[in-house]
Specification:
The protein is an alpha/beta fold. It contains 4 helices and 10 strands, in the order ββαβαβββαββββα. The structure holds inosinic acid.
C-alpha cells in the first residue's frame, strides 16, 4: 500500500475566517480556516473507499481514539456503512472507544494505559483499524500499537485524519491530510478542551493560546 494524502504546504495561508461560518465565540482566537468541513468530508469518503477496498472480507474491529478522533471516526464509519449497504461485498464491523492515559510515575518506559475498553484480549485474531485525529511525533501511536500488538490481532492498520509534517516517528497507512507544523483545532481536535465545537479545522492564534491556556 503506498502512502497517499493531501499535502497542505507550509506556506498555505488557509482561508479567511470571513469566508466561512465560524462560531462568534472563537472568531478572535483563530488565524484561519486550514481545512473546511466539506473538504474533510469528501476526503473521509475516499479514505473509507480505500479502506474497504484493502480490507478483504474479514470482520473489522474499529478502535476509535477519544476524544479527538470521535468526529472523524463517526463520519468515516458512516461512509464505510454506505459502501456496505450499496455493494455486493461488505465488511462486518464492530466499534470500540478507547482513551489513552500516560503512566504518570513511569517516565522511563513511557508506556500508556488504554482505558474505556473491557479487555484488549478481544482483539486476538481480528483485523483492527485504529482511527485517530492527528499524528504529530507519532510517539503516542507507537505506544498504542505496542499495546494492541501484545494482544495478538490478525492485523492492525491506522487511519489518521491528519499528520503533522516533519518529525514523525510513525506514519499511518491511511492519512487524510499532511499539515504544517502548527497547532490546529476544530472537528473534535481541541486546545485544552476548547474548539471541539468548531466544524472546520483551523489554526489557533496567539491570543487563543493565551485565552485558553491552563
Ligand atoms: P504525538 O504523540 O506527538 O503524535 O501526539 C499525538 C497527540 O497529540 C494527538 O492524539 C493529539 O491529542 C495531540 N496533538 C498533537 N498536535 C495537535 C494539534 O495540532 N491539535 C490538537 N491536538 C494535537
Amino acid at each position: 500500500m503506498t502512502e497517499s494524502y493531501i499535502e497542505i504546504p507550509d506556506n498555505s495561508k488557509g482561508y479567511n475566517l470571513d469566508m466561512f461560518c465560524v462560531p462568534k465565540h472563537y472568531e478572535q482566537y483563530l488565524d484561519s480556516v486550514l481545512i473546511p468541513h466539506g473538504v474533510i468530508s469528501d476526503r473521509t469518503e475516499r479514505l473509507a473507499r480505500n479502506i474497504v477496498k484493502d480490507m478483504g472480507e474479514d470482520e473489522l474491529v474499529v478502535l476509535c481514539v477519544l476524544k479527538g478522533g470521535y468526529k472523524f471516526c463517526a463520519d468515516l464509519l458512516d461512509y464505510i456503512k454506505a459502501l456496505n449497504r450499496n455493494s455486493e461485498r461488505s465488511i462486518r464491523m464492530s466499534v470500540d472507544f478507547i482513551r489513552l492515559k500516560s503512566y504518570e510515575n513511569d517516565k522511563s518506559s513511557g508506556d500508556i494505559r488504554v482505558i474505556g475498553i473491557d479487555s484488549l484480549s478481544t482483539l486476538a485474531g481480528k483485523n483492527v483499524l485504529i482511527v485517530e485525529d492527528i499524528v504529530d511525533t507519532g510517539r503516542t501511536m507507537k505506544k498504542l500499537l505496542k499495546v494492541v500488538n501484545e494482544n495478538s490481532p490478525k492485523s492492525v492498520q491506522v487511519c489518521s485524519l491528519l499528520v503533522k509534517r516533519g518529525k514523525n516517528e510513525y506514519r499511518p497507512a491511511y492519512i487524510g491530510f499532511e499539515v504544517p507544523d502548527k497547532f490546529v483545532v476544530g472537528y473534535a481536535l481541541d486546545y485544552n478542551e476548547y474548539f471541539r465545537d468548531l466544524n472546520h479545522i483551523c489554526i489557533i492564534n496567539d491570543e487563543g493560546k493565551k485565552k485558553f491556556a491552563v
